[in-house]
Amino acid sequence: MYLIALCDDEEEQLYKTEQMLTEYRDRHSGVDFKVESFKSAGTLLDLIEEEEYLPDLILMDIYMPDKPGIQAARELRHMGKQCRIVFLTTSREHALDAFEVEAVQYLVKPLSAERLFPLLDRLLKEMEEERRKYILLRVEGMLQRVAVDDIVCCEAQGKIQCMYFADGTSCMLRITMAKIVEMLSPYAEFMRVGVAYLVNMEHIECISKQEIRMDTGKKIYPPRGSYQAVRERYFAYYCGE
């Protein structure tokens, strides 16, 4: 499910846009999203900053009394949030500012299904493709989107799991190894090695009976007697089996 935030100080406009989104969802049976409406950009930003709400897409009016849309978008980017932003406005005068904050589109009101629906088609397709290669993890109390390709391996350390990344960094996760395996199960590049390791085969540099060496220098020591199975699994992956 995707989260879509509507932000407009005009209640009638909020209602019309929400009805348009409902119509879009009714026409597309495979689409699943939830819409939340906000009359204040400040309220929306507070929820995002407190990690209580993280929308995938924001449809935001540029002209709002409490906080202009461009300013709200700048604050959002300063938080490091990369959710997509579409500005809704009655004027084109802020088009360059919208480009500066990496808005994906700039729609002039009154909004119509003829312009909104093709945009939703494109954005939802992009988000679906991106989501396939990212997982969401809670790291040090904050939700972080982690690129699957950047994960080198994960090592169980008691009730804590240590995840290692391609840039040499690592993080500690307070979830079970079984949960991590479940999250990464759609990705064929991950191989379980014993009970303590989950390895991204794209980052394997070499395999021997004694160790698996990753391209970051990280060494993994497979359980005794597992070399043949690990070797076969690795070659099967690269042969496309």
Topology:
Layout: E1 2-7, H1 11-27, E2 33-38, H2 41-49, E3 57-61, H3 69-78, E4 84-89, H4 95-100, E5 105-108, H5 113-131, E6 134-139, E7 142-147, E8 151-157, E9 160-165, E10 170-173, H6 177-184, E11 190-193, E12 197-200, E13 204-207, E14 212-214, E15 219-220, H7 227-238
Parallel strand pairs: 1-2, 1-3, 3-4, 4-5
Antiparallel strand pairs: 6-7, 8-9, 8-12, 9-10, 11-12, 13-14, 14-15
Helix pairs in contact: 2-3
How would you explain this protein's 3D organization?
- By secondary structure, the chain is α/β, with parallel strands linked by helices.
- 34% of the residues lie in helices and 30% in strands.
- It has helices at 11-27, 41-49, 69-78, 95-100, 113-131, 177-184, 227-238, and strands at residues 2-7, 33-38, 57-61, 84-89, 105-108, 134-139, 142-147, 151-157, 160-165, 170-173, 190-193, 197-200, 204-207, 212-214, 219-220.
- The strands form four sheets. A five-stranded parallel sheet has the order 2-1-3-4-5. A five-stranded antiparallel sheet has the order 10-9-8-12-11, with helices on both faces. It has a three-stranded antiparallel sheet with strand order 13-14-15, with no helix packed on it.
- Helix 2 packs parallel to helix 3.
- The radius of gyration is 22 Å and the shape is elongated.
